[in-house]
User: Which sequence fits this backbone?
């Protein structure tokens, strides 16, 4: 089976090539390439990838089981296979560097890939309906396939450099997808911003990698397996304990974390994600929910052994996560664009994941990634269905009363809402409560307080979204109201599947019920050593049930508060216009930080270089040229006129030569 | 492998070029293309040939002092790849040229072949004076190309280019003359062994500096870069592609192949200065590119920035840096050339080089847009293209020798290059069309065929760069191909068969 | 018979040469310039002859033959020079050398 590992990313890549050629070939025809053909390939390849991943997952489990049973039956102690690996070719081999291009499929990868390819395939299916009337259908499908391929490479890579290939690949695809409707320059700007902000993070990733490589030494191959082994090896503990190396490791992990903040839209590189809403809706779902933005959390878990040795970095991660969660949740309260509300909600939920990882609960963070993938995908796709039904209207102030007109969409969105607010037994309930529990136990009461408050605010803005869209009286324009229709089947099916997922996906790790822990068992051997290193001994805090009660209480409080605010008319649903005042300043806080500390200095320096240094240098060169010209003029003047002057000069020259010769003779 | 054949082929083609049709541009293009492909066919096998050299023949000996000037061609992995890069770009140049040069295809092709011949000579020279001859000779066809086919301000651009280059290389001639006097020969491999013992250590830094100056101007680096933007933007775009794609590489090649091997002590002593110059070039080039509003000026400063990193990395003397620099030369040569080809074609549509006069090419010229954005992405070093591997290796080598902060300074170019390149892409391909035109203009098939293979090669080397990386042997900086050593390698090669 | 010492002849020759040179350089009249040139030629001739007297052997004749050549050439030169002078004077109406700075016009 391991021989076919490369097919998992290669199939969507093939889909990209086929759709790209279709798009280019059809660009001269009146209607563009055949949508049926293009859509068929676009969905087929992710689906096959998904099936392959399921098969690989079962194979890995079977292999592990068989070794375990052999060990048990015969009393042996054989090593349980942790991963399926495939090395394809030697990628970069020169000097000290020896990188192979290869893939590794282990428990963590399998969990990630299951929902990346699974939800990815559903989103592809959904986009067939959503994009059906767009001229660039095949191009869109090509980008989506490339995105999926890059994401798979990111997760499946056997080392950080292969991951980086996918890491920048998804950045490129998000650039292409955000700027998909490229005739509008605003979309192009948003796309460029996403790419550039991500590149800042990517530079951090690369530099962190360099430092990390310096720490583990050139003889250690740059694969996750080897790096983890190095950090787990007790022989290296003394090396790590020395001051210089410890400081270097702190810097390295901070830089790697900077890469994560770029990809996962955390403070300070948070700004691109809300702007990324310029892209078509399935993009939002794919980028936010299932895949791209969660890759930061994935990387933390993947390198948990490294991060666990850098306590300062872990502190930073936890606090950045908490701050982002709180900031984005509050920002979400002010937004009127349905996609932006969801975007800030995503940022906020990502903050939760980082908070979990930062307090040393990598598995809980990943669990939230998993459940979030379902409920955020359904929310985004549902929002897309609403926008589709309203003919492109995204402002929640011009919605309302849609519960009667779009009951199916409402049902799916309701499932997503139920999950994200953390109401009992929904997907978000399990993961969020787990995080809150771990934060209280390992991070202290302050972080717990922030997280709990954020949970309340989350419930408020999500309920506001539901009220304004579905429950409140209709504010839809009359012309639009006649055309409201449910989405086509290809959009409905993914919604139902994801909606059901949002309600029940949490049961893969129902913390309160013993034995319901399929999820963490999958990759315990990847993150457990790091978590054990960070957590010493059992923590005796309030009981799990009490904490769950507090969590649910926070959700209910938030919902009630939202209804209260709506009754009080504080949602501004009849207003128009842009954000203003404090809300605007708060929303654009980090944009301003970027402008002041990044963009403006760059502009100033490059302006000085172009407008002052460059002409100055030019002037110096010109001056030299003029000096030469001046000498030339003098010589020219001597040459030209004055017969007698010329003669006198030649006589002078002759005499000079004679004197020199005579001096030599004497 | 006959090196003489490789060198002679472009010159023969240039002579044949005189007999091309002066009136029928199409036929001239076809014939010259066939010639260029034949040259490529002759040149590519060099890559597999390893270290080879011709028998050294005394060309002439300087009277009185008795210095022997040799006629000697050598080739190792680096020169082979650069000759191949050149041979690959010439056909693409000819394919991209028709819209720009119009009826004067014959003259254009002849000059391009002459330029190719001179550059091939510079890459293959095994003798300092020979190298200098080709190094200077390549100025003639390139200046004429700029002055003959360029834009509005072409005369001044050509003159600036010529004067800068001459001023840069005059000290080098002095330096070579001095070396010839002291070592009794200018054969590179012999000079390398004699130089440290035969030259007064007081003078060596000056000779080193004089040779370095020529290469730094050719590369160019800050502050010798003033000719570059003018020459690249005023010259005909296909010629600019060759200028940046290959001629600028002669500068880097000279540093790697001549400067450092001949003056290892001085190179090590002044390494910090060169790394600093390289890094300043990287940043200044990128920042200046942000400010430009003409397509080819953006591309020119982008070249400045990318090649600066190559210079900085070379002076770390790391094996990764040498492989990385060769890959950078190949990757940048391909991507920058592709961008210049495409920019030149696009400029003929709008009759303007200002970015604001473009827009919406993505919908009007989809094929162009696809190729242009691919080339742009390759130029910013996106993983999966050769540029990424090259920049990774260069950054690693800078990091290993100078630490994290210098690597960080160099790495800022990753962000800045994305900034100016994507700005260019957006202004040209996206948004609303600047000039109302319903006409759909796109690349012709032959133009697309000229550029597409370049992009395929970039992706190929991005995933499988080993052939290029292996060609740059770790001992490149000290070892030069020697006629005798080569003879044994040839014998081994024959025996191996 | 006492011979005039060589040094006297050479000094005279040098004086004549300097006088001719001074005439060429200082006088602006083309006529005088030509006369200065003649004077310089004859100074050289005198020097040749003086040297030939102190020489012995075959080289004696060379010293005496050279002035003959130079007299012949000087005669030819004077012919051509005067003819040109006339031609120039007709076109420029001046014999001032400083006025001839642009001959090609």
Assistant:
């Amino acid at each position: 089976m391991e021989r076919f590992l490369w097919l998992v990313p290669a199939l969507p890549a093939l889909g990209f090539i086929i759709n790209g050629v279709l798009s280019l070939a059809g660009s001269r025809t009146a209607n563009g390439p055949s949508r049926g053909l293009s859509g068929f390939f676009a969905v087929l390849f992710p689906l096959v990838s998904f099936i392959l991943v399921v098969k690989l997952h079962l194979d890995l489990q079977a292999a592990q089981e068989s070794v375990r049973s052999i060990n048990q039956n015969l009393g042996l102690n054989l090593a349980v296979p942790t991963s399926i690996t495939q090395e394809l070719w030697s990628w970069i081999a020169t000097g000290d560097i020896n990188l192979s291009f290869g893939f590794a499929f282990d428990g963590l990868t399998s969990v990630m890939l299951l929902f990346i390819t699974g939800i990815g395939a559903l989103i592809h299916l959904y986009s067939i309906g959503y994009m059906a009337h767009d001229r660039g259908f095949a191009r869109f499908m090509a980008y989506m396939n490339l995105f999926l391929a890059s994401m798979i490479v990111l997760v499946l890579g056997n080392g950080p450099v292969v991951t980086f290939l996918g890491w920048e690949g998804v950045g490129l695809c998000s650039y292409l997808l955000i700027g998909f409707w490229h005739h509008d320059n605003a979309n192009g700007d948003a796309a460029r911003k996403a790419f550039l902000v991500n590149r800042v993070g990517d530079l951090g990733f690369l530099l962190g990698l360099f430092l990390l490589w310096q720490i583990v030494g050139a003889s250690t191959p740059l694969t996750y397996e080897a790096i983890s082994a190095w950090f787990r090896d007790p022989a290296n503990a003394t090396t790590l304990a020395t001051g210089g190396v410890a400081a270097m490791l702190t810097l390295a992990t901070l830089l790697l974390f900077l890469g994560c903040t770029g990809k996962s839209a955390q403070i300070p590189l948070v700004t691109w994600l809300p702007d990324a809403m310029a892209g078509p809706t399935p993009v939002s779902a794919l980028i936010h929910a299932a895949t791209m933005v969660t890759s930061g959390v994935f990387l933390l878990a993947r390198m948990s052994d490294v991060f666990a040795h850098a306590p300062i970095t872990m502190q930073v991660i936890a606090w950045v996560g908490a701050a982002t969660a709180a900031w984005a949740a509050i920002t979400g309260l002010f937004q009127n664009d349905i996609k932006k509300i969801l975007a800030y909600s995503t940022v906020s939920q990502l903050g939760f994941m980082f908070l979990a990882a930062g307090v040393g609960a990598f598995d809980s963070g990943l669990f939230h990634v998993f459940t979030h993938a379902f409920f955020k995908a359904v929310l985004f796709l549902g929002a897309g269905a609403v926008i589709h039904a309203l003919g492109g209207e995204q402002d929640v102030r011009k919605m309302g009363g849609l519960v009667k007109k779009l009951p199916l969409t409402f049902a799916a969105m309701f499932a997503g809402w139920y999950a994200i607010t953390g109401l009992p037994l929904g997907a978000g309930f399990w993961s969020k409560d787990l995080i809150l529990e771990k934060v209280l136990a390992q991070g202290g009461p302050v972080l717990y307080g922030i997280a709990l408050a954020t949970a309340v605010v989350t419930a408020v803005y999500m309920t506001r979204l539901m009220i304004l869209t579905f429950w409140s009286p209709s504010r839809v324009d009359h012309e639009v109201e006649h055309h409201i229709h449910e989405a086509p089947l290809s959009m409905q099916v993914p919604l139902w599947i994801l909606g059901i997922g949002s309600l029940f996906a949490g049961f893969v790790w129902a913390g309160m019920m013993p034995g319901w822990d399929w999820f963490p068992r999958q990759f315990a051997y990847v993150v457990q050593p790091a978590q054990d290193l960070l957590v010493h001994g059992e923590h005796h805090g309030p009981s799990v049930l009490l904490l769950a009660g507090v969590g649910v209480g926070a959700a209910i409080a938030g919902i009630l508060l939202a209804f209260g605010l709506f009754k009080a008319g504080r949602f501004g649903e009849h207003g128009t216009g842009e954000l203003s005042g404090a809300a605007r300043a708060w929303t654009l806080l980090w944009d301003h930080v970027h402008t002041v500390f990044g963009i403006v200095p760059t502009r100033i320096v490059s302006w000085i270089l172009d407008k002052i240094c460059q002409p100055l240098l030019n002037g110096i060169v010109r001056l030299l040229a003029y000096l030469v010209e001046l000498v030339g003029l003098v010589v020219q003047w001597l040459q030209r006129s004055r017969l007698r002057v010329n003669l006198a000069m030649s006589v002078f020259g002759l005499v000079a030569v004679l004197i020199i010769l005579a001096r030599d003779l004497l | 492998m006959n090196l003489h054949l490789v060198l002679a082929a472009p010159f023969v083609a240039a002579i044949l070029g005189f007999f091309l049709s002066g009136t029928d541009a199409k036929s001239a293009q076809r014939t010259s293309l066939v010639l260029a492909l034949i040259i490529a066919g002759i040149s590519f096998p060099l890559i597999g040939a390893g270290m080879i050299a011709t028998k050294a023949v005394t060309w002439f000996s300087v009277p009185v002092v008795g210095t022997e000037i040799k006629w000697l061609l050598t080739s190792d992995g680096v020169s082979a790849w650069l000759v191949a890069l050149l041979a690959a770009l010439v056909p693409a140049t000819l394919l991209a040229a028709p819209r720009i040069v119009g009826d004067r295809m014959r003259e254009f092709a002849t000059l391009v072949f002459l330029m190719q011949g001179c550059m091939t000579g510079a890459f293959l020279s095994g003798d300092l004076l020979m190298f200098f001859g080709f190094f200077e000779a390549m100025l003639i066809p390139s200046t004429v190309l700029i002055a003959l086919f360029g834009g509005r301000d072409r005369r001044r651009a050509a003159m600036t280019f010529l004067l800068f280059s001459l001023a840069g290389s005059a000290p080098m001639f002095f330096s070579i003359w001095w070396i010839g006097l002291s070592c009794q020969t200018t054969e590179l491999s012999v000079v390398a062994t004699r130089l440290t013992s035969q030259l007064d250590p007081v003078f060596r830094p000056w000779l080193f500096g004089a040779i370095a100056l020529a290469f730094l101007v050719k590369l160019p680096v800050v502050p010798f870069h003033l000719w570059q933007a003018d020459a690249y933007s005023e010259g005909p775009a296909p010629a600019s592609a060759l200028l940046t794609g290959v001629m600028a590489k002669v500068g880097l090649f000279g540093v790697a192949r001549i400067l450092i091997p001949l003056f290892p002590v001085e190179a090590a002593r002044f390494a910090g200065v060169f790394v600093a110059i390289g890094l300043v070039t990287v940043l200044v080039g990128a920042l200046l590119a942000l400010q430009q509003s003409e397509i080819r000026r953006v591309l020119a400063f982008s070249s400045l920035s990318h090649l600066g990193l190559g210079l900085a990395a070379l002076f770390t003397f790391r094996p990764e840096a040498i492989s990385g620099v060769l890959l950078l030369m190949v990757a940048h040569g391909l991507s920058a050339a592709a961008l210049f080809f495409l920019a030149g074609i696009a400029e003929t549509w709008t009759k303007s080089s200002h970015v604001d006069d473009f827009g919406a090419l993505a919908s009007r010229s989809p094929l162009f847009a696809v190729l242009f954005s691919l080339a742009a992405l390759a130029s910013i070093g996106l993983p999966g293209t050769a540029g990424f591997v090259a920049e990774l290796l260069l950054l690693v080598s800078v990091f290993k020798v100078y630490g994290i902060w210098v690597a960080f300074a160099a790495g800022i170019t990753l962000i800045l290059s994305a900034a100016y390149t994507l700005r260019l892409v957006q202004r040209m391909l996206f948004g609303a069309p600047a000039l109302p035109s319903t006409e759909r203009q796109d690349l012709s098939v032959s133009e697309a065929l000229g550029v597409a293979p370049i992009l395929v090669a970039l992706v190929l080397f991005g995933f499988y760069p080993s052939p290029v990386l292996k060609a740059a042997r770790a001992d490149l900086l000290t070892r030069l191909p020697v006629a005798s050593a080569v003879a044994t390698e040839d014998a081994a090669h024959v025996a191996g068969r | 018979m006492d011979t005039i010492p060589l040094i006297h002849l050479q000094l005279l020759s040098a004086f004549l040469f300097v006088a001719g040179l001074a005439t060429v350089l200082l006088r602006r009249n083309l006529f005088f310039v030509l006369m200065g040139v003649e004077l310089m030629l004859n100074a050289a001739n005198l020097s040749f002859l003086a040297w030939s007297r102190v020489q012995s052997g075959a080289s004696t004749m060379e010293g005496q033959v050279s002035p003959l050549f130079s007299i012949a050439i000087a005669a030819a030169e004077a012919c051509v020079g005067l003819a040109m002078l006339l031609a120039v004077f007709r076109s420029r109406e001046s014999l001032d050398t400083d006025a001839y700075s642009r001959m090609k016009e």
